[in-house]
Amino acid sequence: MAEVSTPHVLLGLLASGGTRHGYELKRAHDERLPRARPLAFGQVYATLGRLQRDGLVATAGQEREAGPDRTTYTLTDAGRATLDRWLTEVEPPMPYVASTLFAKVTVALLVADVDRARAWLIAQRRAHTQRLRELTAAKAAPSATLDDVVALDFAIAHLDADLRWLHTTLDRVADWHREVHT
Amino acid sequence: MTQLQARGVVKAYGPTPALRGITLDVDAGEIIAVTGPSGCGKSTLLHCLAGILRPDAGEVTWHGHRIDTWSEAARSRLRRTEFGVLFQFGQLVAELTAAENVALPLLLAGTGRREARTAALTWLERFGVAELADVRPGEMSGGQQQRCATARALVTEPRVLFADEPTGALDTLTGEQVLTQLVRLAREQGTSVVLVTHEPRIAAYADREVVLRDGLVDQSGLGLDSPLLGERR
Amino acid sequence: MRPGASLRLALAGTRTDAARVALTALSAGLATLAGLAALTVLAIPEVPGDPWAQAEQYGNALLREPGLRGGTAFALALLTIPVLALAGQCARLGAPARDRRLAALRLAGATPAQVTRIAVLETGLASLLGTVTGLLVYLGGRGLLHRPDERGQLALPTDVLPATGTIAALVLGLPLAAALVTVLMLRRVTTTPFGVVRRVRTRGPRPWPGLLIVLGLAAFSAYQPVGLWYARRDSEPPEWLPPTLLIVGGLTATIGVVTGTGWLSYAAGRVLHRWARRPAALLAARRLTADPWAGSRTFAALLAAVLIGAGAAGMRAYFEAELRLTRRTGSGIPDDPFYLRTMDLVDLTVAVAVLIAAGGLLVAVVEGVTARRRAYAALVATGVPRATLGRAIAWQSLAPAVPAVAVALTVGLLLARGLFRTPSNGGHLQTICDAGDVCSEPGGWDRYARTEWVERVTEPPVVPLEQLALLGGGSLAAVLVTVAAGVLFLRAGTTVEELRTT
Where residue A61 falls among pLDDT bands split at 50, 70, 90? Predict the structure, then answer.
């Protein structure tokens, strides 16, 4: 899976976990997104560096322990605002969404408050179903060639898969919640 | 213009509540999909809207008439003339040929045999199964059967077509063909369609969607009615 | 598998299965009663010393005269035929669902023997229940009906009991036979659990039975011309020829009527299809051509009963004509109410047989409706009025029944006419002596006797129209009752619940 939204994932991990070392962030990332390609250390530090440059994270201090430098990072207000914005944004399902959807749902379940997550989920689902409708209508258009139909089928299949996964995930979370809270 | 309305429809099968207060509108010429997980009451809602069932409470209004108060005979006539009903399977009479099956609603309305057969053949032609006119359902494939059943549902040129999982027993490609033809012909005639399905891809053929969950309309579409999102450790 | 588990599996089932079990028990009970009645008549002891003496303790000549007893027992045994037809129809009630259930057990790992055992248990126990109940009813009836009249004679043989061994053989043998038939019928299910249901278009039944009827009637009508042919040559036909003509002709015609039900239903369906304008008739027409043998077993039993009843009516007309002739000419058969009373009993038996056969027909109609209730429910949901479906059921039952009953009545009457010639008297020379006592003196006879020609007087029997109408009308009324029952079940069975697939 591509690591397209790594910066946002790191922001999210910092938001839920507080101050962390780069090493801890890498471990948390791999743990939370288990099927993704494990994050390389170099990439973690590079991303953190960029985030720091953009003012979204800040170093919290350095601890001199028996071992190499371990810089801890923390989320700034700007970083929190960026994360919030990302969590509210609807991912344009063009032509299909897949991996970013996965990342966002995971982070939303981790981080966001219930109302905001709910609002985003409803909006995202609406976008998905709207897109599905557009693609389905396009398939029935008299001008659609075989290639068009094949490509549209591909997109429709993936959108369908997205939606099914979304529904199932929410059902699972609801079940888990019920088990834990009864 | 709203043709068909449901207001607070409640229906229970014995102790099990199937519908707990549904409100929705069906406008002329629009195609709406009623979706939701299995057991959420979709088929029951379709039966109440089509006048097959009488709700325990609430109203179903058709062009201003309260059809939930009508007698079985009156509702039966409504289903014959103004409505068309399509199921997943098992609605063709096994002993009649395809043409006779499609002509049946017209015969019931009093049309002569020859006229009814001509109309039936025209409709079978529109669905591309004219060569099956004198074939019995048991000798056809599932897709062909559904096409004949759809032809029968549309032969009286109804104002509303109710379809309950029409492609459920068909493979993807056949189902797509049947549904595409259905939608095209419905639009041509200005027939509204109420399509019950649990598949998002089938629901995508509709103009809009009404999601049911546990007998109620689910505005979120995702069953987000309980605080299920919280801290996850 | 433990016997208790087998029993539980045998008793598991829906309302249809319960109905099948109940009807199996009922048929077994009726068959036992008929069989026991026949055995009782046969058990009437011969008067010691004279095999032809009459048994004086009975008021009814049918029981008194040894010669007639065999016939009575035979007639009672014949009653088992419609009962068995009823039983056969009942066994098919809900059979597809039951077979599917057993096939599912097979797929779950049951062996063929286990599955057979379950089905046999159900049929065997139901039949046993029926036969034992029949025996109890018989014994109770014996006690209740044992009422000697003022002359000390009994109307029914309630003082005789067949041998215990024979009773046991009947009461236990019937369930065994039923179990055996079940095993045979289940062979297909136990060997392959997958039922192949593929509707292949089959050609309709061929009209060979019609040929049989024509041949049978031809043999009958040949009786007179054959006799005349020989008479013109001043010779007698060979001994075996006339009776053979009658018996073979009669049997052939009866078999033709009975086996012709399939072709008749099919033909009725085709005629209906050509002339049908309303959808109800169209539905019925197609159903008849698609499945002409539905319920034909009991329909055949009904037709056989009608045929025998028509024959009996013909016989009665013959006896009445004979009596009239006797009254006109002063000689002939004795004016014994016995003959007409016997005819009454025969009519009663025929009525009972018609009722039983109608019962079987009712089961067939109801089974047809309930087996197709899903299709009917879907039709009702798409707006077909239940009234149309009810009318279709009526057409479906009456379209073949009316011509079939008419044919059975005609054939039965013609057979009776062929068997009993027109009563006639005279047409021969007769020598009489008018001189009174002198005739017995030697030589007196030759002097005073004269020979004269007695005119031939015939008394043609009337066509018993009222009786035939009663018989035919009664049978069709019974068919209408089955239609009514079917419509009732239609109303109950086409609720929306039948449409639910999830």
Answer: low
What is the model's pLDDT at position A95?
63
Beta-carbon separation of B13 and C497 below 8 A: yes
DSSP-derived secondary structure letter, A98: T
User: What gap in Å lies between CA C380 and CA C371, rounded to an integer?
Assistant: 16
Which helix (H) or strand (E) segment holds residue A95: the answer is none
Q: Using CA of residue C220, residue C222, residue C227, residue C228, what is the dihedral sign?
A: positive
CA distances from B42 to B85, B202, C51, C498 (A): 15, 14, 82, 16
Mean pLDDT of B158-186: 91
Positions of chain C with pLDDT under 50: 195-199, 502
Helix (H) or strand (E) holding A125: helix A114-140
From CA C454, how far away is CA B173, in angstroms rounded?
A: 95
B200/A160 CB distance under 8 A = yes
Q: How far apart are CA A30 and CA C48, in angstroms?
A: 110
pLDDT for the residue B31: 95
Measured CA angle at B60 (ends B59, B62), to 5 deg: 140
Question: B-chain residues within 8 Å CB-CB of C283?
Answer: 93, 95-96
Asked if B95 and C375 come within 8 Å (Cβ–Cβ), the reply is no
**Residue B134: pLDDT above 80?**
yes
Residue A136's pLDDT band, with cuts at 50, 70 and 90, is: very high
The one-character DSSP state at C47 is P
Tell which residue, B76, B99, B83, has the closest CA to residue B157.
B83
Q: Which chain B residues are within 8 Å of A116, Cβ to Cβ?
A: none
pLDDT at position C500 is 65
Full-model pTM: 0.76
Pairing of strands A57-63, A20-21: unpaired
CB A79 within 8 A of CB A14: yes
The closest of B70, B73, B64, B95 to B1, measured between CA atoms, is B64
Contact present, B51 and B67 (Cβ < 8 Å): yes
Interface probe with B: pick from A111, A116, A126, A132, most Cβ of B within 10 Å = A132
Tokens representing residue B36 in the block: 């939701």
pLDDT in tens, C132-181: 999 999 888 888 877 777 776 777 777 778 888 888 888 888 888 888 87
What is the interface pTM, i.e. ipTM, of the complex?
Answer: 0.85
Helical pair C112-145 and C164-191, crossing angle rounded to 10 deg: 150
| Under 8 Å between Cβ of C72 and C60 | no
pLDDT tens for residues C118-136?
Answer: 888 888 888 899 899 999 9
Q: Distance, in angstroms, between A70 CA and closest chain B CA? A: 25
The answer, for B36 touching chain C at a CB cutoff of 8 Å, is: no
Q: Is A15 on the interface with B (CB under 8 A)?
A: no
Cα→Cα distances C478→A96, C360, C475, Å: 69, 11, 5
**Single-letter amino acid code for the residue at B22:** I
